[in-house]
Amino acid sequence: GSSRAMGNEVAGVEDISVEIKPSSKRNSDARRTSRNVCSNEERKRRKYFHMLYLVCLMVHGFIRNEWINSKRLSRKLSNLVPEKVFELLHPQKDEELPLRSTRKLLDGLKKCMELWQKHWKITKKYDNEGLYMRTWKEIEMSANNKRKFKTLKRSDFLRAVSKGHGDPDISVQGFVAMLRACNVNARLIMSCQPPDFTNMKIDTSLNGNNAYKDMVKYPIFWCEVWDKFSKKWITVDPVNLKTIEQVRLHSKLAPKGVACCERNMLRYVIAYDRKYGCRDVTRRYAQWMNSKVRKRRITKDDFGEKWFRKVITALHHRKRTKIDDYEDQYFFQRDESEGIPDSVQDLKNHPYYVLEQDIKQTQIVKPGCKECGYLKVHGKVGKVLKVYAKRDIADLKSARQWYMNGRILKTGSRCKKVIKRTVGRPKGEAEEEDERLYSFEDTELYIPPLASASGEITKNTFGNIEVFAPTMIPGNCCLVENPVAIKAARFLGVEFAPAVTSFKFERGSTVKPVLSGIVVAKWLREAIETAIDGIEFI
Q1: Which one of 125, 294, 440, 514 is most buried, counting C-beta atoms within 10 A?
Q2: What residue ranges of the chain are covered by domains with CATH 3.30.60.290?
Q3: What's the whole-number mean pLDDT along residues 384-390?
Q4: pLDDT band at 425 (very low <50, low <70, confident <90, very high)
């Protein structure tokens, strides 16, 4: 506000106007918070660096898995296991009670752990952070530091495993090699720790109380053994926690506590088997995979999911087996049993559930479907939110939007919803008009008319043909996309239709069609392509 200070009538001094602006707490808070938040460019850089780091870690695990398959190493390590323990690792199936056979296998694994602990007398500490997670500040400092790191060669690794010298990671890898030497189906498990790309802070230095013992409390590497009797994988950690478990809902190996999670964040647990298979088994060890862990993985969006699948596929070098089917079934059951998250934040972008308030304007609940649960809001007495399963939500589109997907409305179909849509006018203010929305079931595939025997194609009023989906091309025609395709067709004097494949939006709310090629009869395709080559290379 403003206040006017009226002073005594003094010669030469006029009325003084003072404007007082109240300090905005919101603005000061926003300034304070934005001070330690990185820019959009830095966020993008961190995301791609996270992906690069993850690939390097996964390749590292793949190479180590290849090294422990050494036949020479297997011969040496098999001598560590006496005949009685070997028999326990390969028990006969107990027809009356298969659980007894599993019990013998577990006893054999326990004895193998004891034998390994005797063999591995000296365990070295990690150099710096080892393969545990580093902060962005540490990565920046290491980039500026040009100190060369010593590379561990294959021969040095095999020698270290044979003699029982090295850090805990090498120890676990040697344990897996010993089990494989006994013809046990053992997998090397690696919990990859790339830097956290969801951390948007500029200053990412750790708390001073982050000690070495906190860092190494939970392992980076461990082992899994296939139990053919229960059709499940048994988890074995022979070095850090010295434990054997059959994971049901939560694992002892999942890091707990703030200090431990600063260096070890469970996000990518990768399994490497003796046949050079590579699988993502994070679902086994993450209790809240869909609501919490998924948000910190690169797979939280479609782009990251496709990229991660490509990396896994590139490292997977064997055919699918029955064991993979059993494991996929187990993962599906874990997804089903995870249940509805207990907070609004965890329900945001959840792959299976959605809050009623988050259902989009262009979505409806399918007829006959009801809410699958309720969420009580903390701090608000009596406030309960409805939760729906995403499979019970249907996406709606307008007739034009369905046409852009190559579908048209069925005869007699009724709209499922009417919404208000803002329409921009070239001159004047924007207006609102009703837009009718339809479901997928209200539409059918658009089948365009075939070209005539002379190659003539049915066109729209603008003399074009709209091709927004492959099914919109007439059955006896083809799409030739090239900047000079129209010129080539005119030069040959053949029948063709310019193809509108998309639209581009320009200033003033104007929409222009994009002509990316032509549609011609299939028997003319070779002639058109030859003419295009001739025009381009003249």
Answers
A1: 294
A2: 399-444
A3: 92
A4: low
